[in-house]
Amino acid sequence: MYLTKAISVMLAAALLFSACSTTKPDSSATVEERTGKPVSRDSGSAQTEPVGSGDISKSGSRAENRAESVKYADPFNDPTSVLAKRSIYFDVDSFNIKEEFKSVLEAHAQYLIARSDRKVLLQGHTDERGGSEYNLALGQKRAEAVRRTLAIFGVPEAQMEAVSFGKEKPRATSSDEAAWAENRRCDLAY
Amino acid sequence: MKKTLLRIRTLLCAGVFMLTTAVAQAQLRVEISGVGTNQIPISVAIFANEDTAGQSISTIIRADLMRSGVFRVVNNGDVISETTPVNLARWRDKGVDALVVGSVVKLADERLDIGYKLIDTIKGSELSSFRLTVPTSFARLGAHRIADDIFEKLTGIKSVFATRIAYVIKTAGEYRLEVADSDGENPMLAIRSPEPLISPVWSPDGSKLAYVSFEDKKPIVYIQDLATRQRIVAANFKGSNSAPAWSPDGSKLAIALSRDGLTQIYIVNSDGSNLRRLTNTAGIDTEPRFAPDGESVYFTSDRSGGPQIYRMNMKGGEARRVTFSGAYNISPRISPDGNLLAYISRREGRFQLFILDLNSMKETKLSDAARDESPSFAPNSRYLMIATGSGSNSTLAVVSTDGSTRYNLTTRTGDIREPAWGPFMK
Q1: Does A132 contact chain B (CB < 8 Å)?
Q2: Residue B276 contacts residue B323 (beta carbons within 8 Å)
């Protein structure tokens, strides 16, 4: 039953992503995306070599295309895509995934299902208050809650690992409510 | 007069590894509350020729005795050796009950010969005396040994001045796991890392530290031999590996692993083999600590909704809840004599050190601070070291379990946490 739901969600996502002119990676037109830079997708030409490795005239024309319309071969690299959201935030003492983040996780799930070569490391964090080890475990619970949500959305086990940094790697280093809220989170690290 | 020769091998185990960093002088401020009238008045004379030691032996002894909270240390500007005739009446008139005298001789081969005598000024008798020979670089250890003897002869309690502590200091963008003397002096580097290090714990024989390192971007438990600096991976399973605790015989570790989804407690041999699971709940079980008899494990669990401390037998079975006051109790530590449970409790938003007498089940608050963490018992069960403060202002503090004494260790600047008090040195 959930498989049907997964398929219907994927179709919805496909519609969403069609605006970026990519649905699934099409190997004949795949561009090397290891650099992470946006590369335009010229239809009809073989674009299998990495950006910059071609001769000057070719890369010049690529640059022109880039100026005109930035398209992303991989939605992962699009800073406006929902996939650019890589953090889920939590309330105090809580590991509950709030409604507002469910769609973000759904989008990441679609991506991972579509790209079986991709793995995500789920890194749980807490604010600085309380002991290191208990916070390590609380951070783990947050990462685990995210992992379970992604699993429900259909992501295979092998593509996810949940770990915790507890309070040891805060993003915001001051000691106030705003910093604490920023640090109560799970990051999706690819 | 006894002649005691300290084995050099023992001293070398105190700290062979890497850089000795000479740091700022300790600014000692000891807060004594309540039991001032019960303190033993003592005076420590300047030891004859103690300049040759490179350290002021008498100053180190005085500082040790003051920190213990047990003594009222009376000023003394006199140089008195163990052979100098002493006018006991003069010291009695100053209200001094015990007088410490001594001398230092520098030997030809970079060693020191230290003589010491403890005199009862009222009876006029010698309470203790010995000589010890140490390498010059271990002068501080020699002074701590003398202070230990003074403490033990006058209180009947085993003393902890000649012990070591481990802690993590975050400074200049790196994390350093250091081992220092119990007064914070002589810090030596065990390991440094650009990523966090937490939860150091001493092996019962004092030769190794287990700790958690994030150097591989996830928490992994290592065991490192302090003398050789060799280390092994004790636990690197899928997920997080943390919270190591040694069994009293040093053969096993209890650890917290999230390999099966949620953080649970496992037992593993100290060579990393023979993993077996101890707890099996749907929540968090972490921070295991062995009871001194090795038969049971205390740990933190949120199975009742919030973190509380439980105890269960090593062979399995039901866990018994131990803490009932407050909604948040973590970091259980058992005193080596088995009588006390120390922990951190969050009360009205403040994280504070508490102890529970395991015989009377009476709870006592030991701290009025707001951010206490990671308590560690001294090997004589009489003191607890904690990290206190927050963020870059975190320092180490020592609190006596009778609540009378508290002092900060101020020898290192930086963000200092995760203290672990080492065992008695052989």
Answers
A1: yes
A2: no
The pTM for the full model equals: 0.82
CATH number of A84-189: 3.30.1330.60
B256 touches A at CB < 8 Å: yes
Give the ipTM.
0.88
A159: Cβ contacts below 8 Å, ≥ 6 apart: A112, A116, A118, A119, A120
**Amino acid residing at B120:** D
Chain B interface includes A144 (CB < 8 A):
yes
Chain centroid offset of residue B137 CA: 22
* Low-confidence spans in chain B with pLDDT less than 50: 1-27
Domains of chain B: 2-18+25-155 (3.40.50.10070), 164-421 (2.120.10.30)
Strands B285-290, B415-421: parallel, antiparallel or unpaired by DSSP?
unpaired
Sort out which chain B residues have CB atoms less than 8 A from A166's CB and list them.
Answer: 198, 219
In tens, the pLDDT along B53-112 reads: 888 999 999 999 999 999 999 999 999 999 999 999 999 999 999 999 999 999 999 999
Tens of pLDDT along A28-37?
333 333 433 4
Q: In chain A, where are the structural domains located?
A: 2-77, 84-189
| Half-sphere exposure in the Cβ direction for B68 (13 Å, CA) | 31
Residues 2-61 on A with a CB inside 8 Å of B are: none
- From the list A83, A72, A73, the residue with the least C-alpha distance to A28 is A73
Helix (H) or strand (E) holding A188: strand A185-189
CA B403 to chain centre: 17
Tokens representing A75?
């939605």
